[in-house]
Amino acid sequence: MNKDLTMGRSGQGSAQAAPRSDAVASRLEISIHHTMAPLEQEWRTLDAHPFNSLHHSYDWCSAWAQAHDSELLIVRGTFDGELLFILPLELVRGHLFTTARFIGAPHSNLNTGLFEAGALPLSQTDFADLVARQLSHCLRRKVDLVTLEKTPHDWRGTPNPLASLPGVKNQNASFQLTLFSSFERTLAQVNAKRRRKKMRISERRLEALGGYDYVVAQTASEARELLDVFFRQKAVRFAALGLPDVFHDARTRAFFHAIAGRRGVADDRMLELNAIRLKGEYGERVVAVAGFSRKGDHVICQFGSIDEALAGDASPGELLFHRMIQRLCGEDAALFDFGVGDQTYKRSWCTIETPLRDIVLPLTLLGRFAACYHRALVRAKAAIKANRVAYAFFQRARSRKQNISQKTVEIDSD
């Protein structure tokens, strides 16, 4: 097994002489791994537990790491020799400090780590403190700061084992809708009469354009085609709003292409593409796209886009969500997760708002400054997002910065 750094059990004699807290600490062993393959069997076992986020599944993390050529720091923890958890981290080297974060954190909606089912072998606070101390011992020579972003305090009734660690409330919450086997019962949570009226209006407007089909990609090739439509539509939308395109990076696009249409453990869907496609004179033009992932009965919407130039007034995005949720109610899904970010359409659909936290663990003196910076930045983002004028100004500034960077790259490549 690829154990590059290990902290844990002391010798039998020292354990007998040590205080009780040290004796407990010696039973928790942490190892750091730089490749995923040796852990695959154990990793997939943890994948099966409902609490653990799909974003930390073996297939998801592997696809991200390959597309981004990530420098991995996989944390494996055992207690009394039995596997207890895996924290899938990657190293991000900045100008001033080095951070270990969850793999794929910029494009994840829920981060939990991977934990064995059942009660912790010691109290939640003691366990979290012990993990933090041992992470510091194992990583401080190469990492200044560990950030575990977008973690819930508890998820679907299960407490996060690391929730007691220091952190800051993330600037974004995530939003969910409970699904029932009856679509009518599901809609009743969010004003069924209004929802049905909006759907009828959308359908009438699309019928005036020749009608539409609700499309679910059946093959990986079809999924990738719809994914490319999404990238184009989203780029236009970001440009119109003066916002940076978070899907512009070629490595990020390669990651989504790698998981599009793939199935995971127990037939989980890595990324299923859904669309509203026009019929008739518009030559099967796609006017709305959404991609979601599914683990068990939990569905996470990863992204969505519409073609505003042709059918924007028909609200094809709303229609697409309506059709997706209607279908999923008949497929044993129990929770539709609209993901991170506070937007009007999410609040119109959702009955659950889940606050998220960024756990921030400084490991070095430089890391302490980095932790202060991270907390200050998150709080500033929260304050800016609460002020629409300030938010619009800073988004335009980010867009100008991105455009300048892209032009610089084009000049350098000529």
What does this structure look like?
With 414 residues, the chain is an alpha+beta fold. It has 2 domains: 5-171 and 356-413, Aminopeptidase (3-Layer(aba) Sandwich); 180-333, Aminopeptidase. Helix content is 42%, strand content 26%. It contains 14 helices and 18 strands. The strands form 3 sheets. Strands 1, 2, 3, 4, 5, 6, 7, 10 and 18 form a 9-stranded mixed sheet that branches. It has a 7-stranded mixed sheet with strand order 12-13-14-15-16-11-17, with helices on both faces. A hairpin with a 2-residue loop joins strand 3 (71-79) and strand 4 (82-93). It is globular, with a radius of gyration of 23 Å. Residues 1-20 and 404-414 have low confidence and may be disordered.
CATH superfamily of the largest domain: Gcn5-related N-acetyltransferase (GNAT)
CATH class wording of the largest domain: Alpha Beta
Give the total of beta strands: 18
| Poorly predicted spans | 1-20, 404-414
Number of helices: 14
Secondary structure: elements and pairs:
Layout: E1 5-7, H1 12-17, H2 20-25, E2 28-33, H3 40-47, H4 58-68, E3 71-79, E4 82-93, E5 98-102, E6 114-115, H5 124-139, E7 145-152, E8 154-155, E9 158-159, E10 167-169, E11 174-178, H6 183-188, H7 192-207, E12 212-216, H8 220-241, H9 250-259, E13 269-278, E14 286-295, E15 298-306, H10 308-311, H11 316-329, E16 335-340, H12 344-349, E17 352-354, E18 356-362, H13 365-385, H14 388-413
Parallel strand pairs: 5-7, 15-16
Antiparallel strand pairs: 1-2, 2-3, 3-4, 4-5, 4-6, 7-18, 8-9, 10-18, 11-16, 11-17, 12-13, 13-14, 14-15
Helix pairs in contact: 4-9, 7-11
